[in-house]
Amino acid sequence: MKSLPNTIQQDLRKRVTLEPDSLEMVGDLRPSFNGGTGGPKTTTGWTVWSILTGSASAQGTDTWQGGLMDLDNAKCIADTCCVWRHVALEMEKMFRGQSGRCTAEARASVRLGFHDAGTWSKFTEDYGGADGSILLSGLAGNEDELKRGENNGLQNVAKVVIGWYNKYHRYGVGMADLIQMASNVAAVVCPLGPRTRSFVGRVDSSRPALNNLLPNVLSEAAVLIDLFENKTIRVHGLTALVGAHTTSQQHFVDPSRAGDPQDSTPGIWDVEFYAETAGNSSPARVFKFPSDVKLAHDPFSAAEWNQFASQQAHWNEDYAKEYVRLSLLGVNNINDLTECTKVLPPRIDKASVSDDNAVVKQWLSRGGSKKTSDNIESGNKVSKLD
Ligand code: HEM
């Protein structure tokens, strides 16, 4: 793809504000919502407001206490989070690989969460965002968002999530919440990942989201920064969110290199991605996205990028904060949501991952076949190269 003419790039630059962190409210927390009557009004509203303004942590330590009641038990039905504990446990099983690394379904769930919520902009009509339409549009027979080119690679996880929806919907589980819960469970199941505060009660929609609101891997940094600013996510937030590529193994940017990872530790939520994308000493198999390389070196994002490269805790908190924001784009009933962070699994560190470094290292130098890439992608321990 050709670069944008300089005049357009400069024009976009002028629109990038000097404030790199967003304090902007979303949904019904916006003061202008509903004729100027918006703002935090409930405990949940104030909690989200505090997270978005940085006065409360976006990571939760609250854990599930006691046993788990059956889904049909009246007490379980009366407790909004009870069914979500069942859901989270089922997700955890699918997302944790035998090696301790997270699985392909986990990574795809993080991306699915972004691709549902990210289809919102403050300059378009107020619909789209985290409303479940990425899966509900096709199920309802409308134009199927999942068939858009930008959603290539999400078909397998879509089947899994639709299966969960069919199983748990009669217990009050909505698609928009399910997609965002899957993203948060996935992130914390990947070793070192954050335990992002999780809310439920979003309103579902099967109306296909507007087009052209998701980023292109070949775009200039200025275009990407502008695109995310229109979602209330400023440049530090974008820098934190793209770090999700730390776990990833691409298939469609360069199909001839399908399965190649975006850093040398796929399936692990570490900061290697930032260091390797910015530097030039990553192993041969690491495939860097052009968009990530541009952000790593852009004057507006490079400083934060380089900080993340050596600051896991800083990155985790910033990722969680921006993910809370992202997961609430287009959600106009934030005051009515319920926090269910306690259903998430605990955070885990790298020590829990199988010691197969020597084989993974050979794979990273382009040893092994597709079978080895598939094994790593599934979160399996690789005791030899196939
Ligand atoms: C500049 C913005 C972004 C661009 C251009 C971008 C682009 C891409 C592309 C092209 C892929 C590879 C798909 C494939 O070939 O299989 C990918 C994968 C992925 N993206 Fe992004 N992305 C961006 C931001 C984000 C954000 C904000 C998140 C999450 C918060 C995210 C999470 C992921 C994950 C987890 C994968 C791996 C999926 C898998 O392994 O199945 N991305 N992204």
TrEMBL record:
According to UniProt, residues marked as the site described as Transition state stabilizer are 111
Q: What are the coiled-coil residue ranges?
A: none
Report biased composition (Polar residues) as residue ranges.
Answer: 375-386
**Chain positions recorded as heme b binding sites:** 245
Q: Which interval of the chain is the signal sequence?
A: none
**Alphabetical list of Gene3D superfamilies matching this protein:** 1.10.520.10, Peroxidase, domain 2
- Positions bound to Ca(2+) 2: 246, 263, 265, 270
Domain named Plant heme peroxidase family profile is located at 129-251
Which E.C. number(s) belong to this protein?
1.11.1.-
Cysteines engaged in disulfide bonds, as pairs: 81-340, 102-190
Q: Where is this region: Disordered?
A: 364-386
Q: Which UniProt keywords apply?
A: Calcium, Disulfide bond, Glycoprotein, Heme, Iron, Metal-binding, Oxidoreductase, Peroxidase
Cofactor binding notes: Binds 1 heme b (iron(II)-protoporphyrin IX) group per subunit.
Sequence positions that bind Ca(2+) 1? 116, 129, 131, 133
- The lineage's top-level taxon is Eukaryota
Instruction: Give the InterPro entries listed for this entry.
Output: Ccp1-like, Haem_peroxidase, Haem_peroxidase_sf, Ligninase, Peroxidases_AS
Its cofactor is: heme b; Ca(2+)
**GO biological process annotations for this chain's record?**
cellular response to oxidative stress; hydrogen peroxide catabolic process; response to reactive oxygen species
Residue positions of the active site: 115 (proton acceptor)
* Gene Ontology molecular-function annotations: heme binding; metal ion binding; peroxidase activity
Its family remark reads: Belongs to the peroxidase family. Ligninase subfamily.
Name the record gives this protein: Peroxidase
Q: What is the lineage of its organism?
A: Eukaryota, Fungi, Dikarya, Ascomycota, Pezizomycotina
